[in-house]
Amino acid sequence: MPAPNEALLVIDIQNDFCPGGALAVTGGDGIVPGVNQLMDDFATVILTQDWHPAGHSSFASSHKAEPFTTTQMPYGTQVLWPDHCIQGTEGAAFHKDLRVDGDLIIRKGFNPEIDSYSAFFENDHTTPTGLEGYLRTRGIDRLTMVGLATDFCVNFSAVDAAKLGFAVTVRTDLCRAIDMDGSLAAAMDGMKQAGVEVR
Ligand code: VGL
Ligand code: ZN
After folding, report:
1. Per UniProt, which keywords does this protein have (predicted)?
2. Which of 61, 69, 156, 187 is paired with 194 by a 20 to 30 Å CA distance?
3. In which element (H, E) is residue 189 found?
4. Which residues surround ligand 2, an ion (CB under 5 A)?
């Protein structure tokens, strides 16, 4: 029987993060069968969906810059991405084979001025998404995380959750990384430092 205090967080398994997408993560689609199967083991399944308005401030095109460079935002350094996961587009849709029968879909990155990697806080590390309250009011204190990308949205979500006091496990076999400039190694270290069980 799935434990009532545990939830599975399925992060950003959307077309734009899969091969052929605008910000494709190598092998991103390969995790879908394993993620679908893992959903059976959880009483609560939550999916996140990166959900940007056109012209979002995290897009290189909004700064006349090259993708994968960085810029300074009021909240710190921001990587500039190719246009991706624009609200209502096919790129923002979940992978066609992903089970979407979860309890909650939480969208993030919809504020034009702030990116949001984490499912808990926008990139200013202060503006909440409301997910913490959803989990606490439902008595959930243990989270397993899977999805895309290991070094950005999974990493930020896992570290924030651990800081908030949740017990967090990241299943790296069901995650895939962007891995730019050592970001995967840094994410692994950061998650372990924060007390995330990475396996
Ligand atoms: C993500 C970069 C930009 C992610 C989202 O889901 O990891 N990465 N937006
Ligand atoms: Zn994004």
Report:
1. Hydrolase, Metal-binding, Pyridine nucleotide biosynthesis
2. 69
3. helix 183-193
4. 50, 109
